[in-house]
Design a protein that fits this description.
This protein is of the alpha/beta class and 432 residues long. Helix content is 36%, strand content 14%. The chain is built from 13 helices and 15 strands. An eight-stranded mixed β-sheet has the order 1-9-8-5-4-2-3-14, with helices on both faces. It has a four-stranded antiparallel β-sheet with strand order 10-12-15-13. The protein has a three-stranded antiparallel β-sheet with strand order 7-6-11, with no helix packed on it. Helix 5 links the parallel strand 2 and strand 3. Helix 1 runs antiparallel to helix 2, helix 3 runs parallel beside helix 9 and helix 4 crosses helix 8. It is flat and about 80 Å long. The termini are far apart. Bound molecules: pyridoxal-5'-phosphate. The site of pyridoxal-5'-phosphate (PLP) has 15 residues, from helix 4 and helix 5.
Amino acid sequence: MSESKAQLLESVRKYHQENARSGFVPGVTPVLSSGAAFDEEDRVALVEAALEMRIAAGVSSRRFERKFARELGLRKAHLTNSGSSANLLALSALTSPQLEDMRLRPGDEVITVAAGFPTTVNPIVQNGLVPVFVDVELGTYNTTPERIAEAIGPRTKAIMLAHALGNPFAVEDVAKLAEDNGLFLIEDNCDAVGSTYRGRNTGTFGDLATVSFYPAHHIAMGEGGCVLTDNLALARIVESMRDWGRDCWCEPGEDDKCFKRFDHQLGTLPHGYDHKYIFSHVGYNLKATDLQAALGLAQLAKLEAFGAARRRNWQRLRDGLADVPGLLLPTATPESDPSWFGFVLTVLPDAPFTRKGLVAFLESRRIGTRRFFGGNLTRHPAYLDREHRVVGGLANSDVITEQTFWVGVYPGLTAEMIDYVVASIREYAAAA
Ligand SMILES: Cc1ncc(COP(=O)(O)O)c(C=O)c1O
C-alpha cells in the first residue's frame, strides 16, 4: 500500500473514532427502529474502494457474491442494487422461456400474503401475474402451510413469501407443499438473514431467495440486494436478466470466457455475431457497484455478531414486557431461531389504551416506531384495481393494519436503550 493511501486510511480511522456516538440521553438520543451499525473497518473499506475508483461492479462484487453464497450455504449469489430489485429479478427469472413448460405466463397465479412489504408482491403484478393473498397469524405474523394449501388453484405456479420481520415461516413444510404441487418457491429473506428453521438457514429452502442490504437490514451496503439459488440453470437466468438480458456470461471487461465469442448462432442472427451482444432475455440492468460490495464484505464479517445482538435485544424486550396487559407480544415460529428484524406489538381489543396513543407517546420520547409495512396491502390505492384473489379472508391482516407496530432491535441499540423502551411502554400502559 502506498504511503499516502495508508495515511489517508489512518485518517479515516481517526475520523471514525472522533465521530463515534457519545452516551445515551433518554428522551434526547433517538432510539431508532432500525439502522446500520458501522465500525471503522466499514468506513475504511468504503473509502478504500472509492480511492481506487471501483465505481462499477467488479472484483469486490464477485468476491462478495462468492462469500455470501457460501455463508448461507448456497451455490450462487447475484448482487443487485436493492432488495426490491432482487425480488423483481427472482420472480422475473421464473418467466424465462428457458424454463419451457415450467415458466410463469401472464395470468398465472402466485400465492403470497397481504400483510407485508409491497415489493414482495409488486413483481407478481409487474410480470402480468395474479397475486393470491392469504392471511397471516397474529403473534408470528406469518402465514401457514394450511392457508397456502387452500389457496392453490389450477393456475397457481409459485409461492412468494417473506419471513416476517425475521421470523421464519414454516418454510420446510411450505417447500414440500410447493414441490408436491409443482410450484416454485421464492423466499423473500430480506428481513431474515441469519434466521434458521429446523437448524437450517432461511433462504436455502426455496428455488430462489432474496436479500436486502439497505441499512435497516442485517448487513448494510447503502442500497443493495441479492438473489441466491442452488439451481445453476436459474442462476444463469438471473444473471442474464440482471445484466441487460444478455446471453453471454463474461464479466464486464472480460472477453471470450466461453472461447466461442464469435462462434455462436442464436435467434435469427448471423453465425458468429458477437456473443457479448446477443440477448436471450428481455432483461434489466440491476447490478450493484464495488463501492457497495466493499462495504458489504466488511459488514459480512460481523453478520454473526449482528444476529446475536438482534436476538439479545429482542429477548430483553420480550422479558421486560412479559406481564404488560393489553399487548400481544411476538412469538418465534416453532422450531425456528429468528435473527429478528424488529419487535412487533399488537394492541389487543380489550387494552385500556390505543395503538395510536402508545405510538404517539413513544415517538414523543424519541423512540422510533414503524408499522408492519403496508398492513393489508389490498387496501392501498396501488392495489385497489389490480386483479387478485383473496382466499380465506384477511381478518388478521386488517387487525395488523389497525393495531400493530414495531420497535427496533438492531445492533446499534444498547441494553440501556432497550430498557428505556421497556420502561416507556410500561409507564404508558400503567397510566392508562
Ligand atoms: C420483506 C422485504 N422485502 C423487500 C424489501 C425491499 O428491500 P429494499 O429496500 O432494499 O428495496 C424490504 C425492505 O425493507 C422488505 O422488508
